[in-house]
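Let us begin with a simple case.
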Amino acid sequence: MTQQLALAIGLHQLATLVWIGGMFFAHFALRQAAQRTLEPPQRLRLMLGVFERFFVWVWLAVVVLWASGLWVFVGVYSGSMGWHVHTMMALALLMTALFAYIYFVPYRALARRVAEQDWPAAAERLGRIRAVILINLLLGLVTAGLGSAGRYLA
């Protein structure tokens, strides 16, 4: 059981790092560098390409996070865990819904607008994606904090 728990938690942590770290990088490093150095057409194409690749990893992270989280929550502890784990799961559900919204609504619209070379509309979609990513990043940081320190707050 200990090895299974170690595997599940290890996979969970790796997936968390990919998702939260990617959002942090995209929002605080890549976005700002692209704004300072690229004109809108190049910046929007770059961000679309980055999201195209990053979102594949986010979908994989979401699957790993839910599978490993439920494995530990239900399979190991039969749902008997502290308030912090229940809060983490609620935040994870919200984060997953926000990511699905990003992917299926503004990201797809961004791709269409870039293909049409409608730069003002593409920039508006990118702004919407940025705003929701920032919300998800903050939720992710809170969730990670609960995951690492929550049991000590009980």
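The second case is a distinct protein. As before, the sequence precedes its structure tokens.
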Amino acid sequence: MTTVNELDKKRMLMKRDTDELVRVHEKNAASMWRATYHVQPVTGLMNDPNGFTYCNKKWHLFYQWFPFGPVHGLKHWYHVTSPDLIHWENRGVALLPTGKYENSGCYSGTAISEGDTIYFAYTGNYRDENRVRRPHQLLATLEGDEQYTKAMRPLITPNENYTEHQRDPKIVRIDDMYYIFLGAQNKQEQGVILVYCSDSILTDWKFLGELKVKGYENGFGYMVECPDVQKIGLHDVLIFSPQGIEPSKDEFRNKFNSVYLIGDLDLETLTFTPDGPMQELDRGFDFYAPQCASQNVYSDCSIMSAWFGVPDYTYPPTDEEGWSGLQTFTRELTIRKGKLYQTPVRGFESLKKDELFCAKNGEIISDNLHGQMPNSAIIRIENPDTESLDLNLFSRNYVIARGFAIS
């Protein structure tokens, strides 16, 4: 397994590192574990999606990145773009932790675009001379494809009424005002969401208070990360990643969960009134920190990506090669009859190729599958016999079994 010492975990990318990283990237590209369509790190480790937005006829996605190994070292932002949310192009490092208020990393954040400019709100992981964490919410801009500029002063300074855990600003524009929803922990060590507002992206951010979620007056576990607010149709959707949620029957069994509530957001009273209970976005083991894009391309849905991984876990096959992490396929979020539906973005239909196999009523109509091993396939079963359905893909000794089985 690739190891990184404590000193190298604090290493920031420098121009002199270019040749080294090119060699590492070329080596990684030959790995059997590299993905075809998922966004993946050029080198090192990726985690949370950041700054997901649409601008200048391209989708822009950034991710938390440590360049020098499969560990959570000093965080940078890396930039990828796509015309269709399927085919992604590496654009290079975006944000480096060069400023005073990000001396321990450029942590997660979001973006909105206005005209040809993308505005980023993100957490600067700042530690003082005594190594005490004092997180600041920072601003940067991207004009064109290359020109990044950081604001001189923080947008939001640490709120002393809360613990040091204040991070992951979600910036949105609602009517003529800008709002930031910030994950935080109160002094009772409960997870909460703080709300700030301004009539300008650049200055004068004011603290409005905590977002009150009816039925959840005691907060969400011990910390809220990566809050997100979406308007889907007539519904408001609150998305976040709470830490410390207690399992309930077969729900919230993962250590790290990502959840949502559908309801009504009232910014005058800072109240979110859910239509029903909190639900998991994904019960898979490797799904965290989802983020929806700031976009006006699709009016009927939100577009979401997430980290295909979770904190505190290792992934030995790729760790041994010196890299770790993927982004999930982007998903469309819609609401039908009060329920949230998640589907692959519509462009994935274009990836379908010729039909390989078809059978109807027990009779094989066409079979071009023999001798082929596609790396992905869509299997559609219509009107299955509810008494007996056995799907056997690889075994030579095929025996029909009662009930349902996939082998």
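The chain is about 5% helix and 45% strand. The CA atoms of residues 386 and 403 lie 7 Å apart.
Keep these points in mind for the review questions at the end of the chapter.
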